[in-house]
Amino acid sequence: MITGSATKGRTLGRSSEETAEHGGTSMAQHRTMSVGAAPPLTLDETFEALLVDWEAVALGGGDHRQLAARLEALCAAGCHVFLISADNLEALDGQLGARPSGQGRLHLCCEHGSSVFMVTERGPSLVARRSVEGKADAARFAAQWLAERGITGRLILVVGEEPMAIEAQRHHDLDPARSLMIEALARAAPFSLGPRAPGSEEGDASVGARLDALLALLDNQLARRANRRVPQIDPDPEWVLPLPTTQTTERVVETLGTLANGWAGTRGSREENGHAAFPLFAVSGAYDDRNHLLEGPLWTELDFTPNRRHHDRRVLDLRTATLARFPATDSGLRSLRFVSAASPHVMGLRAEASVAQLEPGEPLRAPAHGARFDRRVEAGDWLAQTSDGDEQIAVAAGDRLTRLRELAVVERLATWSRGRRGEPNGAVAQRRLLDARTAGFDALLAAHRATWASWWRDAEVSIEGGDDARADQLAARFCIFHLLSAAAEEGEAAVGARGLTGDAYAGHVFWDADVFVLPALAAIRPRAARAMLEYRVRRLPAARAIARARGLSGARFPWESARDGTDVTPRVVRGPHGEQIAIATGGHEEHIVADVAWAAHCYATWSGDDAFLLEGGGRDLVVETARYWASRIRLDRAGSGHLYGVMGPDEYHEVVDDNAYTNVMARWNLRQGAALLTGSTDADEVAEAERWRELSERLVDGWHPDRQLYEQFSGYFDLEPLIVSQIARPPVAIDVLLGHRRVAASQLIKQADVLMLHHLVPQEVVEGSLQPCLAFYEPRTAHGSSLSPAISASLQARAGDTEAALELFRVASRLDLDDVTGTTAGGIHLAAMGGVWQALAYGFLGLAAQPDALAVDPHLPQAWSAVTLRFRFRGRRIGIRATHHEVTVCCDAPLTVALGGRAPQRCVPPSTTLPLGLDAATRARKEAGHERRAGSR
Amino acid sequence: MSDELAHADQRSGPAPGSEASELTQRTGYVLAALDTTAAARPVLETALRVGEMTKAEVKAVHVVDGATEHLETLVERAGVPLRLLTGPVEGTLLEAMEAPEVLATVVGARATPGGKRPVGRIARHLLERTSKPVVVVPPEALAPGTFLRLLVPLEGTESSSRPVLQALYPLLAVDVEIIVLHVFTDKTLPRMLDRPQRDLELLGREFLATHCPLATGIELRSGPVGARVSEVSRQHRADLVVLSWSQDSSAGRANVVREVLGTSVLPVLLLPVASASAASDVPRGLAAGEHPATPEPRKASAP
């Protein structure tokens, strides 16, 4: 804690602003006390909000015009200020008289916050009136208001006589109701104006000293903003991810630190790039002529010369989607960047280092690979374009350089535009740059933080428990962070398997998007899910053409697609033994046709957007895919329907007949299509619906009643009955270990296949078949696909084996953090991240969208004491918190909840708590799970 | 090369010898250790190719233990100076190999093809004691052409890759292609392979970026290392195999080196990993010679 008076503690070094060439009054010497858990304040930090205990500054009067002027300037610069006082409005506003304008807001929390006024140039206006017990309530109001704008913890400065951290308050036995340092501000920076002298009165020297100290503090903050110093992040360990620091993982770090807003993404490369760097700026849906992601001009590079023994730290702030870099020594680079969520075509970067090391250099540079690159300077700003074929990405950028004696500070704003070659993409990007500059870096960053705060309000996950649970929580938040970053909310969203975080898989769209990513977004960003489906809707003509080319009806979506929806799956590769392998996925992995239909249904079910399914693009998706299956199914002499020559999710067995997953999904697709056509006024459609129903009944599904198992495909049970654990510890790419042929001749499988049915369409499988199918297939599953562990985690949790579920969940949630696949350098595994959300929602919380209710059936592992998930459900904002004993449902409108298979009950806002009361069957399931685990060990 | 192949290619950056290729002739020389058996010819021919690769003079030595006329004719035709030495074979040759000017020595693996051991006794003792790179030439080696393509099997740990490259690059004075071969070990076997065609390419790309940025390509394989080296050598028409070497051929050590020497029809350049400390940094793989054997799966009980 800093004090403005020289009372106690050690002296801190002078901040850069004290030596600035311009801006600000020099601070008096600052001193600190080592109080509480908050790190010591150096004032080499820029705060986004100030909470000031007015009684610490003013004692009943005085001239505060200087203070008012500073506060107005600070608000104009974008900083929020809360003055918290015991006085009423007349007294407080009468003393201060500030009339601020600009992005920052001035709040007067009068009478300990019982009435809160926002002050603008037109004067104060009441924004809240509440009953309070003390100033702590005002602080809570401020903390909540700021949190809704993404301003938390260390971004807030609390100014008082002697504000103390929570622990110190306890130590000194202070009344918490009177303190501004509440729990929600535990990481805030405390700034002490010094204790009031006993019996002091207005005009006391101590009063003047405190006011001077506050003025100096405000001057320091104004100077930092005027000098465009690098903003800071709140180093909240529950939200901030330290990125690995070793050289060998640089490209992995770049992937993990990617910032994206669904429209565009920038990898987390160092500003100087350096050894083994692969910087990338990509725009969703922009593909080159080879149907690979088109690399856009790079906008984050600086001419920075690191010292030979250079070390730095990079951290990803998940809460605000900012990437920050800190030097380990005084001679490194400090930076912060963002890809705006509020203004999707805007990006910003600030960096500072010694003038000997840092020059802005050319702000736009050529990408690593391929595309044609043009660059020029116009009116002092840079414009660069990459183009290939008909596609073009334009980026405009401009720098502002500030020199503060030995310190160089660079502020860069960049804007982008994508379009066809020949369109005025460059001019659009330049116009956007002018708009961005008018708004200003600070305002853009503030809007970006606020937008992410709003995204997290519908997506936050909390996992309570010990250290392991906290690690699980951070890993889960990392996954959800990238899911939120993956798709835009307008137009169409082509979500590639690696999102916008790398060039792996060329940005192609697989079933990963429909079955793994979309369910999460349907709940946490429904409009983004809708945009993903729009990508499919707009490619229906291409899918119909593929079906026609095969002599079939309806729409056949390709296994891999890019810009125009044609099949871009590669045909031949060489395997790990040097052999030529024909790629069968494009020709045979047809389940994607039903997967697309399922995605449309999933979105409509969770979002409540029935119109999309009944009369919009969703109807076309379901009907046209059903039509495809109807033409694809062959009847044998006995009249049974078959799908010959297909490949299921288990790609170890490439071309098989009657894959259970494909057949059952096709059956579901036919039934859904028939249901949509039943009410049609077109007689042909009604007749078609009837044919589809009949066909769905004839289609074999591989169910063996004698074994109580689905057979994965025709003849699977005759294969060599190997199990994974006797060969290697899963997850393992067992096809590499044993060879493709050996594995194909065995019952070893890559990932859930039959069990995907229990996951996606539980109503389509025989009741009670989950347990026997899990018991049979899980030991045969190598989890050799990144898509696999999360789905198995979800199923294991539902089946009651929560410890097995947790083990798999941890593999999935840390897949990229630990680079489990060795390929994270090429981008994150977005489907696995979608699977992680599904494991939390469908597995551990047991959520399911029923026609008239939200089903909740939690199964938590012992290591977790509670799990909270926020999401949207049919227009409502929902929060479900489950412990081992009860479930609390938070909602903003009444919601019907079916808890643990019991009769639905009505939950009302703001929250309803329901006891869990495990029934005998559930208890037995859990015990069975524990026994099975014990046995397998 | 097919786009979809599971090996990376066309790496950016200068070829290893590009800077050194400006040099005319080096001050050091390549030493050909010749005997009077049929192995002398391939050893001498290999030494000449090593000389071209290093842009260094080739000199021959022979420890006299009988008639030398045939040998003298051989080296004379090749234009290589021959120094005849006397004394105990191992000690005398080792002394010649350790001369400061010697860049690398070329020795025969053994006198005749088909022997039980991959290298003969004398060659093994020399390999275990010398501090210099040694090219081991199998008796059945084909007459080598110019060394254009080197196959470098790497284990996939930084501590094992670094010594190989640090010792190899200084020898290269002309442009050569470096093909890296990685045979998956129990530590590098991928745990997941979503789309084998794409993921193996990615794995290869990252392997090169981490372990050998100047290589022109990589092959990823599983199975026995010796067989894979032979297979990939043929496939790429490699001229020379390059291995690090812990100089410890006791039981359980250097299995990879032993396996490759026992199966390769190409000359093998062994780069000694300096002494015990470096060797201790190489816990598995090339120097230590471990790779996962393909397990024999056991059958599950019927459902």
Work out the oligomeric state of the chains in this entry: heterodimer
What is the CATH domain class of the largest domain in chain B?
Alpha Beta
**Rg of chain B, alpha carbons:** 20 Å
Strand arrangement within the widest β-sheet of chain A reads 2-3-1-10-9-4-5-6-7-8
Average pLDDT metric of chain A: 89
Biggest sheet descriptor of chain A? 10 strands, mixed
Q: Please state the overall shape of chain B, judged from the principal axes of the Cα atoms.
A: elongated
- In total, how many beta strands of chain B? 10
Please describe the structure with a list of short key phrases separated by commas or semicolons.
heterodimer; A: 937 residues; alpha+beta; Rossmann fold; Beta-galactosidase, Chain A, domain 5; Maltose phosphorylase, domain 3; nine-stranded antiparallel sheet; 27 helices; 40 strands; 34% helix; disordered N terminus; disordered C terminus; B: 303 residues; alpha/beta; 2 domains; ten-stranded mixed sheet; 10 strands; elongated
What features would you describe in this structure?
Chain A is globular. Among the domains of chain A are: 2-226, HAD superfamily/HAD-like (Rossmann fold, 3-Layer(aba) Sandwich), CATH 3.40.50; 240-457, Glycoside hydrolase, family 65, N-terminal domain (Beta-galactosidase, Chain A, domain 5, Distorted Sandwich); 785-937, Maltose phosphorylase, domain 3. Chain A has 27 helices and 40 strands. In chain A, the strands form nine sheets. Chain A has a ten-stranded mixed beta sheet with strand order 2-3-1-10-9-4-5-6-7-8, sandwiched between helices. The longest helix of chain A is centred in the first third of the chain and has 22 residues, at 205-226. In chain A, helix 11 (511-524) runs antiparallel to helix 12 and helix 18 runs antiparallel to helix 19. With 937 residues, chain A is of the alpha+beta class. Chain B is an alpha/beta fold and 303 residues long. Chain B has two domains: 27-137, Rossmann fold, CATH 3.40.50; 149-280, Rossmann fold. Chain B is built from nine helices and ten strands. Chain B has helices spanning 40-54, 69-78, 89-97, 121-129, 158-168, 196-211, 225-236, 255-263, 275-280; strands at 29-33, 57-63, 82-85, 102-108, 134-137, 149-153, 177-183, 217-221, 240-245, 268-272. A ten-stranded mixed beta sheet of chain B has the order 3-2-1-4-5-10-9-6-7-8, with helices on both faces. In chain B, strand 1 (29-33), helix 1 and strand 2 (57-63) form a beta-alpha-beta unit. The radius of gyration of chain B is 20 Å and the shape is elongated. Chain B starts with 28 loop residues before the first strand and ends in a 23-residue tail after the last helix. The model of chain B is unreliable at 1-23 and 275-303 (pLDDT under 50).
